[in-house]
Amino acid sequence: MKNFKKALFYVSLFGCVLGAGVASAQVDPNDKLGNRVPREQAAPKLNPVFANKPQVILFKVHDIKPVLDSDGVVTACEYTATFYNRTPVSLRQAKIEFGWTDRISELFPIDGNPSLDEEKPGQAKPAPKEEGLGAIRSTIDIPALGSLKQVSVHGTAETDKCFALFDNLKFNVSVCNILGQETNTDSRRGRADADKELSSCAGMFAYVNSKHPEYYGEFKEISYEEQVEREKTQEEKEKEMIQSINNKITKNLDQTNTIISNIK
Length: 264
Hints:
By secondary structure, the protein is an alpha+beta fold. It contains six helices and nine strands. It has three domains: 2-41, no CATH class; 48-121 and 131-222, no CATH class; 223-256.
């Protein structure tokens, strides 16, 4: 009888230990193999902004304006590119090249003055451009951009076909760094890691044209001029802070020189 009770006790104890082990783990819903992971390793819930929408850096091109010379001839096209970082990471810097293809002139040739994009008599033939982006090119630098933040960058395309900038945009990201993921490129492995980082970072950009609902719904209402004014105000504050620090340093140096002179 005593042996039976002792056996029953060990069986009950084993069942409790086994039940506790099962309860301490949960099935990862994303794991098709049904592997169990400890509760403390379960992924934290994402911000609804990231959970419900693709994690991308949206951008659009707008406020396209022709640049005229003194004779009223279009010499270039100005535009504004606005970027909205809808990802949980912060962008440290990026360089992006835009390319457009003029499909209107192909359908409706215009006689008269030659286009800025065409070769002119007596001029050297322009260097061939990368296939796929189009004949009209423009490159801009994107400053640091935090998560769920927006920035507008002013750009210029050297063409007289401003109408081409309203659609058919293609782009190539040549420089892209995520804050906190800088890679040392001195070694072969470092260069490989940098290439992998560039590919991953560049893949976050998504162009939104005027036909897409996000063109009107995802971006904040802020003009390029308003942003320039904000940047000037921020720059003035930084200059004042630097000047204040310089004044304090100069004052401390003067006091030190006075003390040294008195000692002598």
